[in-house]
Predict the 3D structure of the following.
Amino acid sequence: MQQHVASASVDLVFTDPPYGIRGDQLDTHYNRDETKVIAGYVDVPNDEYAEWCRTWIKQCERVLRPGGSMYIVSGYSNLHHILNALHDTGMQEINHIIAQYSFGVYTKRKWVSGHYHVLFWAKQEKGRQKRTFNTHCRFADTTDSYNDRLSVQRLLREYKHGEIRNNNQLAESFIEKFIEYSSNPGDLILDPFGGSFSTGRAAIALARRFVGFELNPHAYQHFGQTLG
């Protein structure tokens, strides 16, 4: 980002960063077949996570335009580091959204984790550069729009039998919803952690522009070409 993305040039950041929980070993926890998962997942050592969060979140603040929005998807393990980094910026919290899913890790001696956190923050507005939020972009009816925008959202799993996938890949329909509400056609969407480039495909499908990065060369080579 520091080298390739200009300051105040991005309208919306949507990202699902590494969680710092040994993401390359998730198959042992989820008891699932990883033969179709792309190799080379890059996670962040736990003892480096706090400083790493401060670094990339500060860069997101730099590249966002005044009034630009950011959504960060996170588990609970290192959520405090992400929140601490956000509070060290000049941005403001808009919402703390819960994404409920039904494919949690089996446990015996504690509650089964069944949600992610989606942190919705924005850069301070300036003059006519206001924060975008398209209240009725999906439903003209006020009641339907209200229900669609509740702070507990359902995160469905996309089953792609036989297809190559990335670790912890979010459903594109889930990402599209946030892009629709918090950006307009032609806006520039950024995902600093491209992974399977689901954010990129969702952005392009909704007539937005996209910029993103991915350190794993296997993921970049395989999924990058799906952007067209």
